[in-house]
From TrEMBL:
GO terms for cellular component: extracellular region. The keyword Membrane does not apply. The keyword Ligase does not apply. One of its GO terms (molecular function) is oxidoreductase activity. It is found in: Secreted. Belongs to the multicopper oxidase family. Residues 2-100, 206-341 form the Plastocyanin-like domain. This is Laccase. Pfam families: Cu-oxidase, Cu-oxidase_2. It comes from Quercus rubra. Keywords: Copper, Glycoprotein, Metal-binding, Oxidoreductase, Repeat, Secreted. Its main location: secreted. Its cofactor is Cu cation.
């Protein structure tokens, strides 16, 4: 229920674990003023694209005729365009004006809501986002980078090597990985292992680059380079390091799609985004170092790349992963360990004295097809 002439603040979160979402309100514009707890330069738009786990602050002015208007959302499908049997429902609620008028037989539906496979509309929205970057709300984009990482995001094949694994096809199952490593959760929490110097839980050798460079977004890529290995490899950062990460989407196994990447413990600046293969010579020249959006989740476009920067000034053990949960559980995840600084304030807090042991039972790893090649809901366990 709204009053004509008033402006409302909408706090929107995408709580869907498996899809980016288009959202619009019939005959009303939205003004984006914040993302993930940070101000943005206000942009007026007839729709938004919001990734899993992402939050947005929107201003809505009730400036239309008295009546009822649908608020509507639908999935943005970025996987194989040949697939048609994905979820094509619309979810709706009603924006209703207070006052005396004849209730329409049906609320109007937003004509500006993009269609399910509208990649251009998704990219058009995300590339408009900027930090407020004002005197009252300054930002601090790292300029002198001390650590650079180039990380590929891929669908992969994983060899099925034990009796608890039922392969999807032949001897392999579907997995996902970063720089050809599919994350494997250890039996002991990494934070506990790091804090107590427990050996054998993880290795500190996550690579800064993929094992090989190829046409990441090409068609008909050989399946031989899609084979991945399970690993619990972390990246260790010194306190106050200035970090730049370039995420590169790939088309391995014809599995190209968007990947909303999320970093725990930090916000980061999105300094660049583009389609195709990242060019280390030319693309950095176009980085936005003046007012890039500051967020904790942002999508890597389908067959594209995303460049981000942050200062490693929050010591601890921080998970980072694709926020499409099926990709995360398949292994598209990793961990940053940020070392302590020189003071108590810049060091990991001691665990509480009552810290219990974690005895959550390990559950089987469930594999569900990403929908490409027309295979939906196939499952196997490892």
């Amino acid at each position: 229920m709204v009053d004509q002439g008033k402006t409302y603040l909408l706090r929107v979160v995408n709580a869907v674990v498996a899809a980016d979402i288009f959202f619009a309100i019939s005959q009303h514009n939205l003004t984006v003023v914040g993302m993930d707890g940070h101000y943005t330069k206000p942009i007026t738009t007839s729709y938004i694209t919001i990734s899993p786990g992402q939050t947005m602050d929107l201003l809505l002015t009730a400036n239309q005729s008295l009546g009822q208007y649908y608020m509507a959302a639908r999935q943005f499908w970025s996987q194989s365009i040949q697939v048609s049997d994905f979820n094509q429902f619309n979810t709706t609620a009603i924006l209703q004006y207070r006052g005396n008028y004849t209730i329409p037989s049906s609320p109007s539906f937003p004509k500006t809501l993009p269609l399910y496979k509208d990649v251009q509309s998704a990219l058009k929205f995300t590339t408009r986002l900027r930090s407020l970057a004002s005197k009252e709300h300054p930002i601090n984009v790292p300029l002198n980078i001390t650590t650079k990482m180039f990380i590929t995001l891929s669908m992969n094949d994983l060899e099925c090597r034990n009796t608890t694994c039922t392969a999807k096809e032949g001897e392999n199952i579907l997995a996902a990985g970063l720089n050809n490593i599919s994350w494997s959760n250890p039996g002991i929490d990494i934070l506990l292992a790091y804090y107590r110097n427990i050996s054998g839980v993880y290795t500190a050798d996550f690579p800064d680059n993929p094992p090989s460079f190829f046409n990441f977004t090409g068609e008909d890529l050989p399946t031989s380079i899609a084979l991945t290995e399970l690993g619990t490899k972390v990246k260790v950062l010194n306190y106050n390091e200035a970090v730049e990460v370039v995420f590169q989407g790939t088309n391995l196994m014809a599995g190209a799609g968007i990947h909303p990447m999320h970093l725990h413990g930090y916000s980061f600046y999105v300094v660049g985004i583009g389609l195709g293969n990242f060019d280390n010579e030319t693309d950095p020249k176009g980085f936005n170092l003046v007012d890039p959006p500051e967020v904790n989740t942002f999508e890597v476009p389908k067959n594209g790349w995303l460049a981000l920067r942050f200062i490693a000034n929050n010591p601890g053990v921080w998970f980072w992963h694709c926020h499409l949960d099926r990709h995360m559980t398949w292994g598209m995840a990793g961990v940053f360990i940020v070392k302590n600084g020189d003071t108590v304030e810049s060091s990991i807090r001691q665990p509480p004295a009552y810290l219990p042991s974690c005895r959550v039972p390990t559950r089987p790893r469930l594999q569900m097809s990403d929908g490409f090649e027309g295979k939906a809901n196939e499952s196997s366990f490892i």
